[in-house]
Structures are given as C-alpha cells and as structure tokens.
Specification:
Spore Coat Polysaccharide Biosynthesis Protein SpsA, Chain A; eight-stranded mixed β-sheet; 15 helices
C-alpha cells in the first residue's frame, strides 16, 4: 500500500465541493494514508469556508487557472503519488484504494486514469437524461486495461483531469502542468508519453462528473470543451484533435476564393468562425428539428446533440480570438 496526496483545484465550487469532499472521506482507504488538499485560486462564493468544515488542507494559489492550481498542489504534496479530482466530481468508496494498490503492484507505471461518467445534479429531467446518453456515446471508454502509447491514445482513451493520478517525480520531470492554456490535462499526458513515461487507462477507476441539467449550463460546458480543444490545436498543430486534415486544407487553398459573397460574410461576422463550419453547425441544428436519420428518433435528444455541437464550435473558433487568458474567458462566460 502506498500513501496518496489528493489535489482538488477549486474555483467558485460552493455548490459541489461538499459532495466532492464527502465522497473522498467516505473512502474505505485508511484515513492516515492519504491527505486531501483543496487548492483555491480566488473563489468568491465561499468555497474555502465550506471546505474548511472538513478535515482537509486549504491551499491558496495566487496564480489564476487550473494548471497553476494543479502545480501548487503538486508542490505541496507530501506523498509521491498525486491524485487529481475536480471539485465538481464525486468518487466511489474504493477509488483511493484502487489507485494505491495499482501503483504498489506496478512500480514502472507513471500515471493512471479512468472513466469520467456524468452525474446530473440539478434534478432529473429530459435534458439530464439525454446529456448522459450523449456523453456516454461520445466517450466510448475502453472496457479493458489499456497502455497509453501515443497522443491519439491519450485522447481516445480519455485520460483527463477530473480523474487521473501520477507519480510526483514523473510530473516534475516534465516541469508540471502548462499554466497559460486550457486543455492542460491532455497536454501534460502528451508530454509524459513523448518523454517515455508509462500511462494506463483503468476502466474500474471511475469518477462521476457533475453535468448541468439546464440549457445554459450545457452551453457553457460544451463551449469550454471547444476552447480546450482550440488551445491544444494552437500549441500542437499536428495533433489528433485537428478538425481539418492537411490535405483538406491544401485542397481548400487551391480553390479560388469567390469575392462578394454576402452570405459568407454575414456568417463570418455573426459567428466569428469559418463559413463552412458555421454552415455545418447550423445545418446540424436544423436537421435535429426534423430528425432525418432514424438513429435520432427522439427530436429533443437530436436538438440537444446539435445544440452541444454548435456551442462546441463556437468555443473552438470564436472565443480564443478575443479571450486569451483564463480569467477573461471565465468572465465572458459568467456574463452570458
């Protein structure tokens, strides 16, 4: 058995931090063999005060952004195994024991992660049911233990921030998390793999991520996914998340540009994204209203799928042009 440091980055998490900490403290893992750190980076909703009601360590992070909060947690960690759980997640009772036992038995493994499953917390309704179904269809988690050997596998096997754990020396060997971009959880896994570190996906290592059950919350969630993917694309142009292949781009460059297309200009102005992508998003949205494909036999679910896709593309193409820093992006979303 190895001891664990659990790091929880928290920004304005008053609604979820209580359930998060309660789930960790209900663990069947011996309480003396793990520590919990809540790393706060400017919460204004009483998150530190709520967290202080639990037997955990409160750490203030003066730098903004989840990457900086994760790095502060790593620096403060007493133990060599550092687990990361988002403040809007809950874990199973055997979660910490699975992590400890696995690192104990596999000394050459540097990092592990597992499924992040949806957990709706704003009441059960049609939207919440459909969001769970869409999320499960999109993720398609492996059902067997899998070694991560490439960037593509990091993405397809969804080794992500709400649910992963690493050996502290491995994190320090790549200088920790990127602090000036979103998508830092995927990005550090890419760097670890490229530096020869061994990462594995464990289907039994599950956490449940709070998913909003209203359209505004769903829009923000999907929008942020788009922003994350854009940040990764900008830093790593040749990556598995690139929307258009190089060959497709080359073909588009060869085609002469048509001048004086008012519809295309209108789309560019209204959406701030490429006309083709806007057309795809709008077409998908309209398509959902009439349900052309049999698989989308539920119109409400089809509407939600297209709504999420549209929000994703808006985040992917639009926001990074105007919102460079993490805090500016958060302010933008809070105003919506």
């Amino acid at each position: 058995m190895v001891s664990l440091s659990v790091v929880i980055p928290a920004l304005n998490a008053a609604e979820t931090i209580r359930a998060n900490l309660s789930s960790l403290l209900r663990s069947d893992f011996p309480r003396g063999d793990y520590e919990i750190m809540v790393v706060c980076d400017g919460s204004k909703d009483g998150t530190p005060q709520i967290a202080s009601q639990f037997p955990v360590k409160i750490v203030e992070c003066h730098k903004k952004g989840i990457g900086a909060a994760r790095n502060r947690g790593v620096a403060e960690a007493r133990y060599d195994i550092v687990c990361f759980v988002d403040s809007d997640c809950v874990v199973c009772y055997d979660y910490l024991r699975i992590i400890s036992d696995y690192f104990d038995v596999h000394p050459k493994v540097d990092g592990i992660g597992g499924p992040v499953l949806p957990y709706v917390y704003e009441g059960v309704n049609d939207w919440s049911i459909f969001i769970e179904e869409i999320y499960a269809e999109a993720c398609d988690f492996p059902t067997e233990e899998t070694t991560i050997g490439s960037r593509e596998e990091v993405w397809t096997h969804t080794l992500k921030g709400p649910n992963f754990a690493f050996r502290k020396p491995a994190l320090l060997s790549v200088s920790g998390f990127e602090e000036r971009m979103r998508g830092e959880d995927i990005e550090i896994c890419w760097r670890l793999v490229e530096n020869g570190k061994v990462l594995r996906f464990l289907p039994d290592l599950k956490v449940f991520h709070h998913i909003p059950g209203d359209l505004q919350g769903i829009f923000k969630h999907s929008f942020m996914w788009g922003v994350d993917c854009n940040a990764l694309r900008k830093k790593y142009p040749r990556n598995p998340l690139t929307v258009l292949s190089e060959s497709a781009r080359a073909k588009r460059k060869k085609k002469p540009k048509k001048r004086g297309n008012p519809f295309g200009k209108l789309l560019d102005f209204a959406f701030g994204i490429e006309s083709l992508t806007a057309l795809v998003a709008v077409a998908s949205f309209l398509r959902s209203m009439v349900s052309f494909e049999p698989v989308y036999n539920n119109r409400k679910k089809a509407f939600l799928r297209a709504f999420m896709l549209t929000a994703f593309y808006l985040g992917y193409f639009h926001a990074p042009k105007h919102l460079i820093h993490y805090n500016e992006l958060g302010s933008f979303l809070n105003d919506k």
